[in-house]
Amino acid sequence: MRYLPLTTPDRHAMLAAIGAKSIDDLFVDVPAEAQLAGPIAGLPNHASEMVVERHFSDLARRNMAASHHPFFLGCGAYKHHVPASVDHIIQRGEFLTAYTPYQPEIAQGTLQMLFEFQTQVARLFGCDVANASMYDGSTACWEAIGMAGRITKRKKAILSSGLHPHYVSVARTMAKYTGDHLDTALPSLSATTDSARLLDAIDGETSCVVVQYPDILGRIEDLSAIAAKAHEHGALLIAVVTEPVALGAIRAPGEMGADIVVGEGQSLGVGLQFGGPYVGLFACKEKFVRQMPGRLCGETVDAEGKRGFVLTLSTREQHIRREKATSNICTNSGLCALAFSIHMTLLGEKGLRGLAQANHALAVQAADRLARVPGVELVNDSFFNEFTLRLPREARPVVRALADKKVLGGVSLGRLYPNVSELEKGLVVAVTETASVEDIETFATALQEILS
Amino acid sequence: MSALNQSGWKPEMGPSGDAKPATFTGNRALMLEEALIFEIGTTDTTGVDLPEVGTVATRLGGLERHRTIGLPGLSEPEAVRHYTRLSRQNYAIDLGFFPLGSCTMKHNPRLNEKVARMAGFADVHPLQPVETVQGALAVINELAVWLIELTGMHGVAMTPKAGAHGELCGILAIKAALEARGDPRSVILVPESAHGTNPATAAFAGFSVENIPATSEGRVDLDALKARLGPDVAGVMITNPNTCGLFERDMKAISDAVHAAGGYVYCDGANFNAIVGRVRPGDLGIDAMHINLHKTFSTPHGGGGPGSGPVVLSEALSPYGPLPFTERHADGRYSLVEEETVGERHPHSFGRMTAFHGQMGMFTRALSYIMSHGADGLRQVAEDAVLNANYILRSLEGTMDAPFAHSGPCMHEALFSDNGLAEGFTTLDIAKGLIDEGYHPMTVYFPLVVHGAMLIEPTETESKATLDQFIGAMRSVVQRAKAGDPSLKSAPHHAPRRRLDETLAARKPLLVWREPEEAVAAE
């Protein structure tokens, strides 16, 4: 009970001051039949710090940690080295244990950080403005589709087959209830994307086209033609970036005409964390800002004329607009946005470009090495730090066999697209700066042993 | 002066009336001003050592990024100082009392941070083969079992990312259940005192939202609710304990009436802290309730997230819950039920709400907190939270208007109004006066059913001495507002910033930093 400061004499004194005989008097409004007589049976009672820590240590040992093994998984979550100072700063109580900055005079730390974060995200994505974060990339993606619907007053969204299948699933869940129509397709194990399909499908009913960049197989393509065709028909282009480090090497979607750019910010500062918490990035053209979901931080002045920051344009939000809000989001991902922003500040443009270059160079080496394994083919012509291999047989059991050899060797497309036989030989491999040349060799050797 | 501080340590008061001399830097000793990274960093500076790799012929599809991005960097010492200085301009639960109603700002134990950072949890990928993440799946499953037992419900959806996302999960489960029985109901009833997320969520899922009135004692009007029920009502969304800080006495009768009329009951579990270990929502007929792990179960709020909002479900709604989820087998192994493995085991799921498995980093923290307290400690949590809130209610009701004080004891939070302040003085002035006293203000202007609402939630992690000092400060500030003290209108005087111009921020939104010449050109 180490987190409870009241003593028994305190409790008695307070009950007396209230005029209650016992604590039960304070629960009189709860019908007796709904009250439990004592602690819930069958559950353990309180435990010391040492006991709890030991339990977690035991469970943690039953997982294969990414840093302990050659590691090549991506598909929406990437392993990058996070500088030690990032984790130190986000553990400062003033950041960690603060609330949403509703009282700006005593929340300038969080607010200034969010203003810096919004600017970093907008510049990285090549957009005018960005918000203060969403839950993750997948929810940011469907919020963007909803926003496009509000702007265009249309219901048809065309999703690229290269969009992460989980993002498609999330959008599909939501579309069932919002009445949006989603035009989707499965990817093929080929170097070419389905941009021809997208261009064909755009018409006067289209609200938006959603394209992942680089896509789920790691392919990169110019979005300009899709943007132009979409704009011609009054539709919007939404670009989805699941690996923001890529934008240290390749052009920003905003530069190619994307109207809304969303992404997963986990790569910078946040870590793998078995899928969450992550941080959704959301940026757009300035003219759409009043249709944006989520919190926005803006610059202003205080009563003495000093620069300061506040949450602003809250008339879009649920606590003011209730059922007419642009989104129901309340809590976002503030601390992960801070981690992203610190990591980005430590990198700076020079560091981000260098990091991107290192990722790409290692990925090129790995792709060439793995493609030399007999029977293995590289699917991609273009890629950043992630590419797809076609194996001579189903990839799922190969991934398990690699894990038995202590190599975490990518994501099988069978995991992401169950029961699609044309994709079952696909293996998506991500190579970041954390992979060494020895790791790549270990991976290639193990793969060869398993396939032979 | 005794009104300022009735117990505990008393700060020395300096001589009053001295004008504060200006400084060259604009700093005031430990109060340090800090520029933006765009003003102090450069695109040529980096605070990291770059890996040395050979150059290769790129395969970037001819899309190399040549233009300057405009991302400034700082060296590591500069970066650490930048963020440390920013941090000191924040109020936080680690610094002091943070009685923000309905937000449950309790102490965040550091053991939770430690276990969440173990490599076996923090450094595993969501798509690793399940054989390599058995410990992570065990954490999710153990927490799920606790949440089911503590709420007396049938199942739990772990993936929702925050409270509002959990609301959406519950409402989608209701929608899916109605569709499965071919019953297209279109209305969700929401009490006037509901969080804004409730109507926003229901509207997002395509329902129309209607308000249910409250009684004069601050509870749902059961008769009005019954009168509105009918074949078009899909369900109700009720917060219990409610946002007036009161337990909905008629909750079971409400549930029975809604069920009899063919609807479902969603409970906003934001205030579960008041009843954890003493009342199980499942015994009250609830069909779905989200649990804010960042409120009741102590995971840090982080300046606005990340949160985590698992949703417990009744037997009627469990078949419709989202993917993926964990399953424990008789031999102790865990598996993951996702699209690939769902088969006929969970065919009615409404689908996926998020890319991966939910907020793993919050699950480890919440489970660490729950195990630390155990069944006995969690019951004590609710009791101390309610005791602290009632102590504040009864200590301040003589000074401030407490509109529902006659309704009986409050639960975890005490509600006051601005009734009785001098002309021109508002709840906002009380809030800003409290900032000068070294407190984070309570929730203000919510719930909407009370004029100038002030909602105070102390939580169980505050000592009696802290409450006594706060009560003294609150009395002092309220007395100043009643007496029309003009210095209160311009509070705060001692914070890093004076009152900020929110109207200007909304009228001319500046949401990103621009180079000074760029900013001028834009005007």
UniProtKB/TrEMBL annotation, chain A:
SUPFAM superfamilies: PLP-dependent transferases. It comes from Sphingorhabdus contaminans. It holds the Pfam family GDC-P. InterPro entries: GcvPA, GDC-P_N, GDC_P, PyrdxlP-dep_Trfase, PyrdxlP-dep_Trfase_major, PyrdxlP-dep_Trfase_small. It comes from the Bacteria. The glycine cleavage system catalyzes the degradation of glycine. The P protein binds the alpha-amino group of glycine through its pyridoxal phosphate cofactor; CO(2) is released and the remaining methylamine moiety is then transferred to the lipoamide cofactor of the H protein. The gene is gcvPA. HAMAP family: GcvPA. The lineage of its organism: Bacteria, Pseudomonadati, Pseudomonadota, Alphaproteobacteria, Sphingomonadales. This is Probable glycine dehydrogenase (decarboxylating) subunit 1.
Automatic annotation (TrEMBL), chain B:
Its EC number is 1.4.4.2. It catalyses: N(6)-[(R)-lipoyl]-L-lysyl-[glycine-cleavage complex H protein] + glycine + H(+) = N(6)-[(R)-S(8)-aminomethyldihydrolipoyl]-L-lysyl-[glycine-cleavage complex H protein] + CO2. Keywords: Oxidoreductase, Pyridoxal phosphate. Residues 1-22 are annotated as: Disordered. One of its GO terms (cellular component) is glycine cleavage complex. Pfam families: Aminotran_5, GcvP2_C. The glycine cleavage system catalyzes the degradation of glycine. The P protein binds the alpha-amino group of glycine through its pyridoxal phosphate cofactor; CO(2) is released and the remaining methylamine moiety is then transferred to the lipoamide cofactor of the H protein. This is glycine dehydrogenase (aminomethyl-transferring).
